Amino acid sequence: MPDLPALPEIRLLCVEDNPDDTELMGLALERADPDRRYLLHRVDEADAFVRALGEPFDVILCDYNLPSFSPYAALQLLMSRRCSVPLVVVTRAIGEDAAVHVLRCGAKDYLTKDRFATLPQIIDRVMDERARVLEQERLTKELAAAYARLRQLSARLVVAQERERTLISRELHDVLGQTLTGMMIHLHAARRAEEPGAAERFTDTAMQMAQEAVEQVRTLSFSLRPAQLDLLGLTAAVQHAVQRIAEPSGLAWQLTSRGEEPKPLRETASVAVRLVQEALTNIVRHASASRVAVRLRFLPQGQLSLVVADDGVGFDAAQVLNGQPSERNVGLYGMMERTELAGGRLRVRTRPSRGVVIRAVL
Hints:
Largest sheet: 5 strands, parallel
Strand content: 15-25%
CATH superfamily of the largest domain: Histidine kinase-like ATPase, C-terminal domain
CATH topology of the largest domain: Heat Shock Protein 90
């Protein structure tokens, strides 16, 4: 029969002025619970109690009748130090009113010294209660941190939306608007032209500008949502995005895909294409890379893993990703925010002169 794992030892802080009672308590614990090891440390006054609180204890056992100390004083010290170690009152005799009062002041239980056999059960119960309280406090802190993070993400989302709207507005005004204005000028010139040849030239130029405007609309439409995404799927859309950015920059690229692409695609597919676009744009602008590899992996339950790796100059991640968005890292933080808002997570692994690997799970 295999040996059962040993139970963890229990560290008890005994506030007791009688060493014999502490020894009797230890013997009673050993007799009632022989499979577990109890370590008892005795103190009998306030200064020793405060010093002992610097050590890790599981439970405090405090005598009710002490000449220079009391459970109430011990509870006050625990409260002032924000110490969560549970305190159990141990006494020879205590009235009902006194017992209720000490429990209201913060003691977790009380026990008369003629019932030491039940002490292991009391210790287990108050330790379990403490573990539940600590777990609840941890969950509460995590929830508060999550709410704070959500507020930050919501604020950044508004900023990101306004930034994208500004870029689209600038693109429409500076590129498409100028092209359409040039078309109108040439069409008006063709109408006013007296020579048929001049009118034809103005019309031809306007038609060329119209074709340029069509291409500009296609480019803008692709940056918002690639048509290939709905027609051909995510892999084809990512390939087209990589090709449009990498090839004009002389960047060698490779795209690999694993797993079965789901049909229909989930909403996160467009996020994946935008992440690839932003990552490739950052590589072209800053990485001085010669090669880039993009890997798609379709995971169970509709999850998607996306990796973009380059052989560029890299950067100091601790310095650039320091928790404060700035001009140096606005692109990376934009990718992180976009991923988190889609319910995913994004990690960046890099070192100077060792390239950059970006991995997102959506």
